[in-house]
Fold this protein.
Amino acid sequence: MTAEDLIESVQAELAPRDDDNRLVPLVSSGEAPREVFARLAAEEYHIVRSDWRSCLTLAARAEQPEVRDWFAGLAAGEQLALGKLPALAAEDERYEPQAGCQAYPSYFAWLALNAEPAEVVVGLYANFAAWGRYCAALAEAMRRHYGYDDEACAFLDFFATPPPDGHAQAVAAVQAGLDAGVVTGKVRRYARLVQSYELMFWNNLV
């Protein structure tokens, strides 16, 4: 099986649950309370910092250059994304994060310490398309229903627009892992749990 085939098959397995996100339809229809965006930002201040460190850890652990480069690129993206959050909502040091929202970065941190980096690429990338669609839908509805401007939506816009070479880089990283013989059936477990924890994040904001 090629890297392209593996990614496509894992994405196909995840697809039936992509619509289990309860927040996106509420925002898209304008029914969600405006306060939900401040909560989203408050949670993301914690998530992005954690994910940034997890990406750097995985880059440091990766033995294949393609895998190392992929996680280094993700880490740089997390750094950029963090700088876009204040336009959506200022960080509130008094905010207490919710366990259901922080389950995703906690699992990502576990993967960073325990999983084979090349396998984590599959688990994360297989879920990226849905994550990007969620962000795009929220950004569009925030402008249409809630009056947010481009600067306030920049954090979501950033993730809604994947880099033009992102897919090729992910495929190259996974292929390097396959060629090295380090990619196993665990990738499907990782992808399933990543999706479950991400949906938990969105649904705990409702």
About this structure: The CA atoms of residues 34 and 146 lie 7 Å apart. The first helix runs from residue 3 to 14. The mean pLDDT is 97. DSSP finds nine helices and no strands in the chain.
